[in-house]
Amino acid sequence: MSNTPVSFYPQFAVYSCLFCLSLSFSPHSETLQEYGSKMVELSKRIVEAVLMSLGDGYERKFNESEFNNCQGYLRLVNYSPPECVEDEEVEGLGMHTDMSCITIVYQDEIGGLQMRSKGGEWIDITPCEGTLVVNIGDLMQGWSNGRLRSSEHRVVLKRFVNRLSLAFFWCFEDEKVVLAPDEIVGEGNSRIYKPFVCLEYLKFRESNEEGKYEKVGYTVKDFAALKLEMK
Ligand SMILES: O=C(O)CCC(=O)C(=O)O
Ligand SMILES: [Fe+2]
């Protein structure tokens, strides 16, 4: 991994809410179990890199103490081709943010994954062989006191063929209290989220019609914000 080029999309450079990793493997040649194990290792290293980006030596300071009990969930989604041809594109998965610390996404060559820029435009994430997409999720947004932004994304189906994706969600353990450490908040800055229990947030998203999986209506800022965030 140390030699793996990590390139940031310029429009996300400030928030690092999405980046691409070039890797020489293909999920087609592995069992899901092997793939999952690799994702666990990769997630740990990505979290380390993310922590480094937040502050000097923070990977040593916080990786073990805060992220050691993370759990991974792998979701394989097969999108059937849209039946209706009236629209140019059909939403296969509505706009949402992930309820994870980070998510690693493999999409096949059909494409369709899109990220929303801060300005609200949809940006195609064009599939590229051997490349995975990494999203920052809501839990990391909460834990980093909003320094990292959970990415808003969706899937649009533009072609009349099956599409396959594998999303690996790397999450805090259910009972974890998500609270940004003082160093992450930084001296002179205000804390923008109150502490919350991870499972309670997941329940909030699942029970609240607006906060449900495919809706971005309510996310971590609606659940735990101490004051209105500047958009
Ligand atoms: O199918 C994809 O490319 C993305 C899937 C996704 O965003 C998700 O499962 O949360
Ligand atoms: Fe997602």
From TrEMBL:
It comes from the Eukaryota. Keywords: Iron, Metal-binding, Oxidoreductase. The keyword Cell cycle does not apply. Gene3D superfamilies: B-lactam Antibiotic, Isopenicillin N Synthase, Chain. PROSITE patterns: FE2OG_OXY (PS51471). Residues 66-173 form the Fe2OG dioxygenase domain. It holds the Pfam family 2OG-FeII_Oxy. Belongs to the iron/ascorbate-dependent oxidoreductase family. PANTHER family: 2-OXOGLUTARATE (2OG) AND FE(II)-DEPENDENT OXYGENASE SUPERFAMILY PROTEIN-RELATED. This is Fe2OG dioxygenase domain-containing protein.
